[in-house]
Amino acid sequence: MTAGGYFGQALVVDATSGSAAALPLPDEVLRAYLGGVGLGVWLLHRLAPAGVDALAPEAPLAFVFSPLVGTSLTTSAKFAVVAKSPLTGMLTDALASSHFAIAGKLTGNDAIVVRGARSELSVLLADGDGVRFEAAGDLAGLSAAETSSRLRERLGRGWRVGAIGPAGERGVRYATISHDGRHAGRGGLGAVLGAKRIKAVAVRAAERKVPPADPEAVLAAARDLRARSFGPATAKYRELGTLANLLAFNAISTLPTRNFQAASFEGASHLAAEQVAELRKVARNSCASCTIGCEHIYAARGGKKMRVEYENVFALGPMCGVSDPDAVLAASAYCDDLGIDTISAGGTIAWAMECVERGLIDAPWLRFGDADALLRVLAEIGARSGLGDLLADGSRRAAEQVGGGSAAFAPHVKGLEMPGYEPRSLHAMALGLAVNARGADHNRSGAYEADLSGEVDRLDGGSAHVTAAVETEDRAAVMDSMILCKFLRGVFTDPFAEWADLLSAVTGWDLTAAELRRTARRILLAKRLYNLREGWQPADDWLPERLLSEPLELASGRVAALTPDRLRTMIDGYYAARGLDGQGRPDPADLADLHLP
Amino acid sequence: MAKAAGVVLAGGRSSRMGSPKAALEWHGSTLLWCTVAIIGRATAGPVVVVRAPGQELPDLPPDTEVVEDPREGQGPVQGIAAGLAALADRADVAFVSSTDLPFLHPAFVRRVVRAAADGADVGLPVARGFRQPLAASYRTTLAPAAERLVRDGRLKPAFLFDQCTVATLDEAALHADPVLAALDPALDSVLNVNEPADYQAARARPAPEVTVQRFGVLADGHRGAEQVRAATVSEAAEAAGVTLGRHVAAALNGDQITRDGQTPLATGDTVFFLSADAGG
């Protein structure tokens, strides 16, 4: 009997033939990987041919739900999208939220996996009756939002749509898949869907329910979590949103600026949440099933409404030296229209701006701080025209093309551009960024929490930083698999035990905190193993050379330096803590516990 | 770059004070706590407290190390030897201090440490009319020489200075550091408290003037910086109207982040209060 909260199957769609088949998901696999990111990793091991090109038809793309989706637990309406990344050549897993998760799961599947490719641009429709494809030539070139709107008009409002923008159609390697303005943003999942010539995936709930094992316990937990979600742990997200980070990060020299040439930005106050909110904020919104309401809706120049987060403002503002809030909002809205990841876009453009400064790229118009140039280059990336064709491949590939030492300041790990956390002044985060399976990533490793809490000296990385990085990775692995929004993480005082109780109530399993810790390690090991299979090398767990050779002088007089030796020592400590050998490879004895095909 | 650390000699008899100076109350903690924490802030390295055999110490900041003098009543050179020896494999230079410097400023510590880090064996301030061997910097390689002096019964720091290179820092040299000149112009860093009247006078002084700024949801409409008087992070938080805790952290001068309210402040410090829930 399948556990509560699950249907016990994935729907595997062959886009080439238009057919679909159910893949049974045994109870032991579900218990071992939970759902979301964890189950997605298992599905990739199960369905992805070794060494497949990320953009080849054979490469699978999985939309993965979780046992909590559809319950009344706050922030549970989330889904993961998992595939081999065209940007990194390794695993990528991105989360998005809201009604697509609920409708997708209630098609009767714990995951929908797409393989193959269409001969013409199409829409994949999935509901309780199975799948079918419809031609989507009329949607070519449209934004994800416009695509969704047109499809819902055509199909009916019961359908929920995840779609790509024009950048996904054109193979921009950091294209996104978007649903209702929220993006499965990192690693180029939109390019994977685009390569299959699928413009959108539309899902509709069937008349199916998947009751939890103990409905009363789930309801009680939902009430409790809801109450806690209004407390101080989520105040920042409710009141100002993640953009509240910007001014604080600037004050403590952790705001990457001009392609990591500095860690504070003289124009930060213009982009601060407090300032922009006064000028442009129009509303606050939340995902389905969420009581936090972290989404702060702003009006860009011209009135277009958009969500603003710290990461898109950091990447298109300080990272590119742009301080005009209207320009940054417009650039962010443009990225949404194109369907590209703002972090990778900003990082790649900032790298190109520095290349121009150094005479390595002949595009004198592309200068740090030039808002018009920012919008122009975004357009070129979206169209893969001019310089944009080079930059559409991300900073790592572009640096390989341009040469001239530009790889030293290409702001990526494993090919994924860096988020807005300065590793030289956040040493626990530096480790988290270096070793993460997805690449430079702040959502699968929240080690910055230790740096910013005062638990460790953020400028003096050592064993305590390793412990913090391991712990936050473990927590993220469970949260991203069961799935709950990480903005809720601060409300849990004994997280693994509390999550075990929640999952037990939904599934009927007798989970413990200890088992969930093992689950976290299993998921992380499975990710590492997948990357190993796809060509990961020890040198991939590292940071850009600039960050290890150019110290930062802080306003206090202290120097923020991260030497190669210090990073090596932390990585060695991380490998030891994870039970890996000195080269970052797993002990074969640990593989038996992975339940891999 | 020389690695710096600290040594605080707590084993004195406090005979003129009439009670252990290390345990004297100071803005919610003790003089010893304050001295250790200021040196820790300034050096960003380990701090070793040297106590007399069996001496009971008040609470100390986290990660403070404690070593004992081998024998009681042998004077400061024995303590210097013990402290430097404890740090020998982890630091190049140590700022060595007595317990009772309530106005010790991090800028003073950094200036004095720099003297020894620049090549001398000892950076010796001469301030307010006296040489200040217990507010001075020493290369940790001096530990064996200091131990030999103790064995020979030569217990004054001057004997150690005879055997090494001493960079004397007179007041002009100290004031040549613009940061120190601005933040501790009277060189109150070397003011010590020996008698109850000294202690009372020190307590009567106003707390240092510091700048506070709140960020994000903590700002609650208060943008920009404010000047307040506060001797600890807790006092600064109170003045700013915030409460340190699981969700609120303080950043000192834009680098060290703490939720420890007892962290001492010094004139010119800036304290940023920010949400510890910094993700997203």
Would you kindly provide a brief summary of this structure?
With 597 residues, chain A is of the alpha+beta class.
The total of helices of chain B stands at 9
Radius of gyration of chain B: 19 Å
Query: What is the architecture of the largest domain in chain A at the second tier of CATH?
Result: 4-Layer Sandwich
Question: How many domains comprise the coordinates of chain B?
Answer: 2
Q: Output the structural class of chain A.
A: alpha+beta
What is the helix/strand order of chain B? Answer: EEEHEEHEHEEEHHEHHHEEHEEE
Structural class of chain B: alpha/beta
Share of residues in helices of chain A: 40-55%
Q: Output mean pLDDT of chain A.
A: 95
Strand residues, percent of chain B: 15-25%
Calculate the terminal CA-CA distance of chain A, rounded to whole Å: 21 Å
Q: CATH top level of the largest domain in chain B?
A: Alpha Beta
CATH superfamily of the largest domain in chain B: Spore Coat Polysaccharide Biosynthesis Protein SpsA, Chain A
Number of helices of chain A: 24
Main sheet of chain A: which strands, in order across? 2-1-6-3-4-5
> In total, how many beta strands of chain A?
19
Low-confidence stretches of chain A: none
Please describe what this structure looks like.
The complex is a heterodimer of chains A (597) and B (280). Chain A is α+β, with helices and mostly antiparallel strands and 597 residues long. Chain A is built from 24 helices and 19 strands. Chain B is α/β, with parallel strands linked by helices and 280 residues long. In chain B, strands 1, 4, 5, 6, 7, 8, 9 and 10 form an eight-stranded mixed β-sheet that branches. In chain B, β13 and β14 form a beta hairpin. In chain B, α1 crosses α3 and α2 packs antiparallel against α4. The radius of gyration of chain B is 19 Å and the shape is globular. The chains are: A alpha+beta (597), B alpha/beta (280). At the A-B interface, α8, α9, α19 and β19 of A face β13, β14 and β15 of B.
